[in-house]
Amino acid sequence: MTYEEQTVLNHLRRWHLGRARAITYKNLALILKMDARTLRDTVSRLVTEHNALIASTSSDGYFYIQTEEELNHAKNEIISRVRKLAARKRGLVKGWTMHFEPQKTLF
Prior knowledge:
- 64% of the residues lie in helices and 7% in strands.
- Strands 1-2 form a two-stranded antiparallel ribbon.
- It is mainly α.
């Protein structure tokens, strides 16, 4: 685990246990003196590579998961983001088809 990963993980475990104590990524980046992109990438690695129980919700921010209810909330947030990204992808494909593929005619 990198120093950055350990720093983020330790801070969230100590100060942001549970959804009620969540912190926005902007505030967390300020506290840890990290740029926002580095923080988001670090949290992503912590969850995907180290199985850290860090939730990220658009309404609450980052927090260390303490209950099954918080885990389910975090999972539902991810599912919602995936659906929105899938809709965005469909819009791009449809836009491409409408603007760049030749119109099909009956003749």
